[in-house]
């Protein structure tokens, strides 16, 4: 869906980064005219069938839409697990050189780790340029390496700040536009005897990284054309500033330190334990699915733009988002590319995706449609959140550079955040230690670090 569960971030690193031995995929397995393990019904049995792994909740409907609209190719879909569970199976297939699907759903931040193993196909010669105009510059950058394109974007996570209207009204708080104002409002709320202003758990390293990038950090510089050369900068002032900022709010008791995506955290959101929730465009769907916004807290949520570090130089950042990629093991890459380019790209599937809050669509045909732009979002008590907050944030997003070892990096950042939350380290020290950990790891995997 929009995010993978942080608890799974510590698995499979050595296998994923088989750097010196990175080899190309094979043409074994993959496409077949008569697949035997499809979750869905094949409509046109004579057409080549493309195997797909994906976990979107409305995938059955999306696949049926595609198959009903195509006579030249059919989708044979399987849910191989969400996030890391699927990635582990994919890595096993890469190592075995067989067993991978033709098309696989991958989060954008995970692409590079598979690209470096030659496990994904460059879609540029297979029609990717035909759909490039459907996406923002940032969304396209997230799936590209130079002129190569390794996946097609589907959904994303432009970031914003959700807040409780009832709490803001009671304590006469105006939505902060800067992080300084956020800290001031947090202090005001505490002084008045109110709840925590927000929460920063140790298990949201992707969120923390996005805020570091928003401040001006560039954690990684990497180009797949030079596989074993990487720039790492995690002890810079921007990173230290962000880690120190949250360390200070935690020390003063202005924000909670509960791990997010837990039952206790959700209970706190429902019960008004937190005045804000800094998150992404998929959050309303996630929260609704957890029962937030029903009962006593119905109509109490609103959303505002993400606070800025420098209001005169606003920066839009992203948390989460998924894509469709073609694997190197596909036996019919042209047919697989048709699926990657066309699956979840038709009007019916996109409409179902955003109306059910399954995805925040990145396709400009939706982002520019009157219905989506002017939608009055029920979770936000009828606020036109797409028009006012999320679409501008998505279109302003300029993309990010991910490392080939996102899983390992997130695990180490998560550990450093746990220390910050426990008060056993400072933001400065955490940044210094994190930089050394990631640099040492990269070198141990055969990288030259600059």
UniProtKB/TrEMBL annotation:
This protein's record includes keyword Zinc: no
Plastid listed as a keyword: no
Any Pfam family hit: SBP_bac_1
Keywords assigned: Signal, Sugar transport, Transport
N-terminal signal peptide: 1-20
Protein name listed in UniProt: Multiple sugar transport system substrate-binding protein
Organism: Kineosporia succinea
Higher taxonomy: Bacteria, Bacillati, Actinomycetota, Actinomycetes, Kineosporiales
